[in-house]
Amino acid sequence: MGNIFHGRTTLKESPSLIEETIKLIEKSFHYKKPFTFKEDFAALVHPSNHHNCFVFVDENNKVIAHIGMRDKIIHVNGNAHLICLLGGIAVDEERRGQGIFRSLMEDVISEKRSDCAFFLLWSDQENLYKKFGFTLCGAQYEYLKTEGTGSFEKTKYSALTPQDQGAVNYLFEKSFAKKYLTPTRTAEDWKLISEIVSADLFIKRDKQRVLSYFFMNKGQDLSGIIYEYGYQDDMKKFVDEARHYGTLWTGMPIADSNTQQFQFMLATGDRKLFANFILDYTKGQFKLRDINQIKGEVYFDFEDETLSLDIPEFLRGILGPGAFEELGDLSPLFISGLDSI
Fold it and tell me: Fewer CB within 10 Å of terminal CB in the chain, N or C?
């Protein structure tokens, strides 16, 4: 069962708290049936990730706060970089404003910072997360649903035969994961994806062979949104047909988009690990010297000059929107809705 105590613990240390933690998250996010957080974000609350599910319990052993993290690997120019995704952030309504969230957030980030290059989270609470060093960045382009029909069939990833699942996995690696800088997927990751029952899969076949696919819908937040896809043909041709089914998000402009928006909030992790990521991602063009969080400035070398920019300007110059022209065509960092938490 694990020991429960007043203060911070994890679901690995206190597995009996899982259901109460899920209830807290669902209440905070105003979940409505038939959706369940446990299915929509299966990877985050899976037992294999319970060591990254941080909870705070009061003197009566009641769960009053939770912050979840998930470690992911991204490969840049052959080098692996660990990043940390945050999600399932919730605080009991009656205990808000007492410093519990700040204390837990600072503790968790401090504990994980030395392990990762950067943190990512998804939230509309910009002012709240600014206090912890998070910056809105990363470009995302939105293409609204259009009228028309297509030749995709609707199913679930879990309903596919092993052969068809393999075809989807292959298309992911050969298109989505080549077009974008995105977290690496393992066999275990695909197994967890099969548990996300609210994610609809659409596939297009030539006879029995899967030619292309896209995922649409997931929980309450991604209804009608196409957020991951794999294809063999021209991407624009694929996008034009897929948009008959829903609004599609990309990490780069395919045509004139309806909207360009920020994709996520990012905070730097270990300075050396983040510097290594920047060096790899910019193909050696930008060499990070230091990050001064108090002044909010980044110091770096570019073309034999030492320069400084404020943190948001630097991050958006690297990851967009409005990336530095000097970087040329780099694969944009883009996180699928199946991976985001």
Answer: N
